[in-house]
Give the backbone structure.
Amino acid sequence: MAPFDQRSPNQQLLPLTAKTNANDHLEIGGCDVVELVEQYGSPLYILDELSLRTACQQYRDGFKSYYHGESQVIYASKAWNCLAICAIVASEGLGIDVVSGGELYTALQAGVKPDVIYLHGNNKSESELEYAIATGCTVIIDNWLELKNASNLAQSLGKSPRIMLRITPGIECHTHEYIQTGHLDSKFGFDPTEVESVFAFLSNQTLLQCVGIHAHIGSQIFELQPHQDLGAVMISWFKIASNYGLNLTELNIGGGLGISYTESDDPPSITEWVKTVSNSVITACEAQGLALPKLISEPGRSLIGTACVTAYTIGSNKTVPQGRTYITIDGGMSDNPRPITYQSKYLAMVANHMSTEADQVITIAGKHCESGDILIKDIKLPKTNPGDILVVPATGAYNYSMASNYNRIPKLAAVLVDAGTANLILKRETYADLIRQDVLPTKLQ
Ligand SMILES: Cc1ncc(COP(=O)(O)O)c(C=O)c1O
């Protein structure tokens, strides 16, 4: 197998350090998964630090190799925002993209410097805008209301905030196909038809520093062509902005690179994506006779997705008269809402019998009171018994961050594993946590 740094984490099915150990157990980050569950409880998110750091390094170093101008990778922390993850990605030189006051607070508490924090969102409240401007973060302006609010806040706070404009570029991706249109039916960003009037407004602003523009065209994208096309579309706005006296120097091309959830997924590597994006911007700048802008990218899923697996304990099983066999796990849609929300497909393996032949077709059901709470339909697995540990890979992105307390099920713990050591990064919620915000009025006591 190729060394860690030569494998693109987003193309793997399991974290880079995963292997079967002498006990026939799955091991990640040098830790036995079965022992982790014994120690930290079930279900459990297990995050491989090396996979996360390797993905950060491949993005960061890829831009250094392929892009001759300045570059900055920022982690789209909506994929999984918590103190430890913000601290790890920042220690690799990445910035952080946040989309709410809560994500911003977490990044700041993790010690991330405001000059590499970018606030997104299509309906930022005034207090979120004020928080970002007062702390010195860059704000990605999504609409007119926000632009005017930012201008007023700059005056009242006596600040000169850095802003970027989110533009809908007319490139829309549906994972395996994409379309280009003049303008898009999207809730995010300024439509291309509005951009010149925004530039005109900005040309009269003394406090707002508009440093550049931003676009994000979609997520779990396997094609390179849409990002190849995006450079030219975005760079054409730089020239138009200069007609309004604006000197744009930064281009944020968003995220979107996909990952392998199952064997049938075949995303490009991180390096291929970086090379495509870099070439696209370099070629567009050469064609327009423009200097290279600072190139910002904001991947989420492809940084964190493959680094994490979820370990569950198998409970009851049943075979229905029509023949399907179900096994039930102690989690489901509250810790991984993607299958019920997007019909997403996942793999699974039995962590305490890694070499046993997968000779049964099984449907894995979650424990929630919802018929649709099926984590995986008809997957081949070895014969299992109650108490076996089932592992579902590629759960790092949009699992914890979209988790809920449906059925008042406490949110899981998460451990960070590296070189044989495990560190708790999220405590398991307790029943007391579940009622922490409940209020029982006196008349009901
Ligand atoms: C504005 C923006 N940037 C970056 C991302 C990250 O996308 P991904 O996780 O696909 O890399 C998203 C996610 O949808 C987004 O909305």
The longest helix spans residues 225-243.
